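User: Continuing from earlier, I have the next pair ready.

Assistant: Great, send them over.

User: Here they are, in order.

Assistant: Folding the first of the pair now:
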Amino acid sequence: MGIVTWGKEFEIGVPEMDKQHQRWIEIINNFYDNLERTNVENKLKEMINEVLDYTHYHFSEEEKLMESIGFSEFDGQKKMHETITGKMKEYKRKIDNNEMLMSITVTNELKDWLKNHIMVEDKKYADVYNSKK
């Protein structure tokens, strides 16, 4: 069922980034769909690790693309990337230290961040990318 549905509103017109954004949605939906299972703590650890791994990959690819097109807002985008990565690292630290962390809170925060990031922030560099094609 999931919590986010991929649709045209998420497409930014950069095929590789659209594909990666679809993967983000799959990761979030997979986690959300598994919240009802037992052993949520272990599932949360797996999800955070998967998010961190994919975060590093995706942000690296996005930043290379932004640099290649001379995107003027690169520094701001990079700072946003660092902020969400830092937040995910903090979630991982809390989980590793057995601190209480609500899995639905993490899921909703990721969902909201992803929607804003794709539909607002990423569309900015996509406009520059598509104007240079």
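And the other member of the pair:
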Amino acid sequence: MDLTHYNANIFELFLHQWALLTAGNKEDFNSMTIACGTMGTLWNKSVITVYVNPLRYTYDFMNKNDLFTVDFFPAKYRKELGLMGSRSGRDGDRLKGTSLTPCFLDNAVHYKEAELSFICKKLYTQDLVKSSIPQELAKQFYAPEHQAHRMYVGEVIDVIQNKEHAYASCGCCG
């Protein structure tokens, strides 16, 4: 996939706009709000790297599925993203408290309301090693008994850009 025409401030996307990371399929999926990730190239492929704490419900979905999505939303959905990040999918259907609509594309799930959806195929996973993280950051982000995040590198296999919510680029959202 040629993404050379796409232009975004990738440093602002994760930090200020947040995103939903989703893994699973139409029958069973989970999403979590993320505020960190990277975009770039690896092995001549366009990639997104996300980090998931093993304590998160989405962790199992990421491990069981080959595809995941990263959706970025307009600012008006900040409340919904906050809700998705403050409750666990283990405790029930968090989508019922939002206006978000899941869309199903092959074996990937993304959201109709997203401005930008990246469909990714896992290329590589690795657990972060706490002893390699600067001590002050490891203390800040991890309890001594918890392991560090797992890193998932995904090849971007499709990009759905929602121009003014017209859904023209995605036949799955109707």
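Worth noting for the second one:
The longest strand covers residues 116-127. Residues 164-169 have pLDDT under 50 and may be disordered.
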